[in-house]
Predict the structure.
Amino acid sequence: MKRTATNLFFLALPLLLGVIVVAILIVLVVPPNTTLGDVLQAFWNGAFRNLRRFSGVLVFWIPLTLVGIGLVITFRAGLWNIGVEGQMTLGGLFAAGLAFMLGEGSPLVIIPLCIFGAMLGGALWASVAAFLKVRFGVSEIFSGVALNAIANQITLQLIAGPWKPGDSDKAQYSRPVPDAARLLGVSQDFNVSVVGLVVTIVAVVLVLLVLARTRWGLNLKAVGKNPRSALLLGVPTTITAFSALMVCGALAGIAGSQRILFTYGDVRGQFAGGIGFLGLLVVLLISARGVWVPLIAFLFAIMLNGGTQLQFLNLDSSLTGVLQGALVLAVLLANGLRDRLRKPKQAKG
Amino acid sequence: MNIELRQIHKRFGSVHANNDISVTFAAGRIVGILGENGAGKSTLMKILSGYQPADSGEILIGGQRVDYSGPQAAIAHGIGMLQQDPLDVGAFSVLENFTYGQPGGLTFNRRDAEWRLNQLCQRFGFDLPANTPVEMLSIAQRQQLEIVRLLALGVRVLILDEPTTGISADQKQQLFNVLRALAQEMQAIILLVSHKLEDVIALCDEVIVLRAGQLVGAQQMPATTSELVSLMFGGQLPPQARIQSHLGDVVLRLENAHLSDRRLAMRDVNFQVRAGEVVGLAGLDGSGQRPFMRACAGLDKLLSGRVMVKDEAMTGRPYRDFLAHKVVFGAAGRLEEGLIAGLTLTDHIALATTPGWAVDWAEAERYTNARIEQYHVRGRATDNIEQLSGGNQQRVLMALLPEDPVALVLEQPTRGLDVESARWIWQQLLARRDKGSAIIFSSAELEELVTYSDRILVFYAGQIYEVPDVTRTSVDELGHLIGGAFMQAT
Amino acid sequence: MTRKGLLFILLALLVGLVAVIPAAAQDEFVFGMILVGARNDQGWNQAHYEGGEYVIEKLAEAGVTARMIVFENLNPVVNPQATVQDVAASMADEGAQLIFTTSDEFEPATLEAAAQLPDVTFIHTSGSAALETTPADLFPDLFEATERVAPPANYGNLMGEMEHGKAIAGCAAALSTKTGSIGYLGPLINAETRRFVSAAYLGARYCYEKYAGGDPAALKFEVIWIGFWIPTPDTLDPQQVTNTFFDNGADVVISGIDPQDALIVAGQRREQGDDVFAIPYDYEGACDTAPDACLGIPYFHWGPKYLEIAQAVLGDGYVQDWEWTSPDWSDINNPDTTAVGWRNGPALSEGAATNLQAFIDEMIAYQTDPANEGSFFLWEGPLNYQDGTVLAAEGEKVDPLKVWFLPLLLEGIVGDSTLE
């Protein structure tokens, strides 16, 4: 019990430090007629003013958590899956493609198919990186960057070509996804997809269970820490690395499908919105300890959605990005500090 | 200039690795640091060389108290340590490694550095071509490079951790001559951490002995091996009796195998080993033992030829299939290849024993505790493997082996272990052999090869020579063969 | 310090928060402005932003306190967490009664937001959902017929007749080019941008022949599309494209994108001694970015029309409309009346300025009375599409909605007409 409390404190410490740094930054940059109180109020309003705002937080939390929990898997296996953004994109494209193909019908059939297709798309894109890695030794970092760019180009080609809106040639978005494939919010106020929430929670629980309780989870850890030793201990290292990327890709794919089937309702350039990269940041902050993904993703979602409201105070919109960067740096700094504080303590006890 | 350590304490969790150690090293002396595995020798040396801070205690140099953090600072005070595995940077040249850590920052005078390197090499008779990449050097040469590097940095206290592992007898003699010269001419202090008592006897002026973190004795040399052993263990070890086991069928076979690694190619290798047979592989590092053993275990693919386990063709199959057939490989570097730093003992056991997809952690922990008991591992199931001492890590590796392997392929299974630990390892191995396991092992210790092998293969530059009658061979003869004597004979 | 100190700071922050909980909203008119790029981009977005400021100023003169809440950079790259619907709902929470959504791709989301927030008036610029005609009605061969869904009543469209400004820009370019080669830095390809490129080309061709004495067939006019209104990771780099134009012989680049990259590059090249110019777009003050390279600026004045709509919302209520507003032909630079205007840039030579004014006068003459002598109308035949098919026969005037939905570029322009 005491140990949990200490752990919690050590997790909270960096966040607290981050918040303080951010607060100081805000004081430094806000125009004279705006108070720090206004800024905090705006943050609060952006995330919690009413159910609708809070659903905005949840809607962003869903893909970020999915990506984050997927990245925990690849991090566990010692892989830097930079390509997660492209895997999200391909997932979204597969979902959209299936939706267009299937047209109207029962959502009970079409939505599961689309989500399954998204997993397939994400996993497929991840398997390209995995193949390049295990077959030719290409670092997943480099192939990831390239595959992300290619995924974006595929998106643009599809919007411009086969998926362009029928009644015009708008270049920015595809025609809308058929209604049967659309994920719907609970209500106009609580505009969150139950399917998205359930899928995300199930995914988190499943991944945590699998990592903790299965041979595959243990294999990932072994490969991540020392592939040569892992091989000697009977771990199929190649398959493990390959499957880690595929599973992460599948989860990122679901995240991408949420962006299409729920958030936008059509396909548009950059629809993944850098959530994959944000997910990398989340996982970095928690040193790949999966249980913390939902919480940290939640904090990020609050920060970004809260930041939306900062603009209404006539603050420069780049401030949110600066704050985010400052927070991440502060947390990383505090993490280092924490490790220093913690070590002698353990030795004494 | 004397070095004095006063009341050094160092704890790792519950382990008191150094407990109130006070000792003085006088200028110009060569001191052996003795003790069984986990006695605290390495910890003490790391504290002295700045790799680890002490929890409490003082270090005095020439009567002056010094405080330093980090090896660079220790070197600035004239104390340098030669690691068991030299920490050089493989892709860089000898000269670049030599200048590493030298003052002068980014602009180093290449010609000047080369001149100094050559001066030092000439003085000690080292052969270190300035522009050779370090990865092309032998272990002995890397050691020499590290010595001249530290000397050039002004080091006057040189700490060596197991310096004679992996080098030939000649190279060892050369090393010892250099060390003696350093002590006599420069009044340097040489501290030698070694398990090889013959080395200690040959080189040292005095020894200190650690046991369980405490300083338990000091002895002026000369002293006999048995005197030193009784200091270390508080008693003498009986000599090993040699028992021949019953030989069964051929369990592992290489047929016309064509092997290669980066340095050498081996053609038409034919080899077989029978159940209950121990085959020792002798030879200098890099003579071909490694590709040979890796081929036996399926870790490297053959360029041509076949591998058979019992009567099944295993050519081209992955290591996991060999493992499924109970052909097990054990690598020399424990934490590099074999164990996984960051994983607990239970994690390791679970990896080695979980057959299905689900891990039963309760069961794995029970099993781990049983193994800890059975193999006398000093550590807990929840400890990370890197928290254990080298000897205990080796015990864990033993515990990870299946009870009834078909063949064990082991690289230097007792490397860096003290006499008692090594003997214990062999008890475990021979127990398996008696149940019908074949054992293939390599070793740098000729004594070990002669003691335990039923057959000995000598490797030299990719050539393999089988010693005709192991019962009649001797360490001396084997030493000659390793040097390539059989090449002239054939 | 450490734990106690941290707790103290946190406490202080909380106290500060409680102390400044804002007073209840006063009696003020709040309207929202959603921008795709930055409010200070010296281009499209700034023009809208200043239109909003104009509304505040004019309402204040009438005794109404107005407040504008702005959300800039609403695009997936900068603000992945935000959608038009969410931002609009936030603005409504802040009390907004009127929201301007000012980028083409906001249209479907604006329609959804309007349906969700029936008490808020939504004005989408450059769209056509409030127009009853669809492209398929005009060009049945090119577009699928889809059933038109009537937009919610609280939704309307607004756009300025920028093709006149673009024609003047094209003319200014033709009067200034020495190499006879003009580049057009295009954003993405749609009817709006095709319309603008074509207008610029028609203006350039006309002036090149009539005032510069050149051979219109020899005038090179090329468009390169970067892919979006603003540079993103997916688009071509507009500065690189501009440089490519200059490197390949063009000496005037007309910008069609929101920010002023073309002008920035032209300014840099001038400093290096190249005799090149650019014509920016959207914002009256855009020439300030690099005056020495700026031939002039075709710009939007959103303020007057925005004010009209705001007054309607404050008064009897806004009535749905699709508006395509023309310049005030009596004074195209009158800040209180014109929707679209043109200002000469410092780099425009005196001779060119005289000819350009003559050209503008010809346009004014037509708009005052088409029967006037010496009048010029942009969309009069013979006009062919890029593929050679006929848009308008000799003397025929193109239906304005066909111009609005222009499906292909015109003959004589080098560059892609469509995405495929």
